[in-house]
Amino acid sequence: MKHFRKQLLVFGLVILTCMGMTFSFQVPVYAGEILEQPINSVQVSDPQSIPSKESCIPIGEKIDLNNANALAFKDCPGYYPTLAKKIINNGPFETVDEVLNIRGLNLKQKQLLEDKLDFFTVSEPKTDLATRMPPRPMMR
């Protein structure tokens, strides 16, 4: 019985010590301390080179529908990879408006294309289809 009490006492002291070590390192943080910290901001050297949510490409640039790689559409929500693949596989296009005639487009895809027609251009095809479509692992 004495032995059991001694073990129980040692076990209790070990538990209390562990709990004390766990909770003693926690320091409360007050909202005042957080609000008093300086706010560090980053200045962008050329804000026009950043795509806006409406454009998905840098201002002043356009995606060439006949020569663009599928990755060119990556920053355009709803385009990459499915719609980009359809655009590339159905080119070359004579005019930008021809992209609306791609067979198999659903209403959402057609609306996405109509909304962004100003961000596309067409030129003489210079690259082959294999170059424009990256390998499957890159498209994930």
Uncertain residue ranges: 37-52
> What's the helix-strand series?
HHEHHEH
Q: Going by CATH, what is the homologous superfamily of the domain at 54-139?
A: Photosystem II 12 kDa extrinsic protein
Instruction: Tell me the overall shape.
Output: rod-shaped
The total of beta strands comes to 2
Could you say which structural class the secondary elements and strand pairing correspond to? mainly alpha
CATH architecture assignment name of the domain at 54-139: Orthogonal Bundle
* CATH topology heading of the domain at 54-139: DNA polymerase, domain 1
Q: What is the class of the domain at 54-139 in the CATH system?
A: Mainly Alpha
| CA(first)-CA(last) distance | 67 Å
How much is the average pLDDT?
Answer: 74
The profile of the biggest β sheet is:
2 strands, parallel
Helix content: 25-40%
Reading side by side through the largest sheet, how are the strands ordered? Answer: 1-2
**Cα Rg:** 30 Å
DSSP summary: helix tally: 5
Q: Which percent band covers the strand fraction?
A: under 5%
Q: Characterize the quaternary organization of these chains.
A: single chain
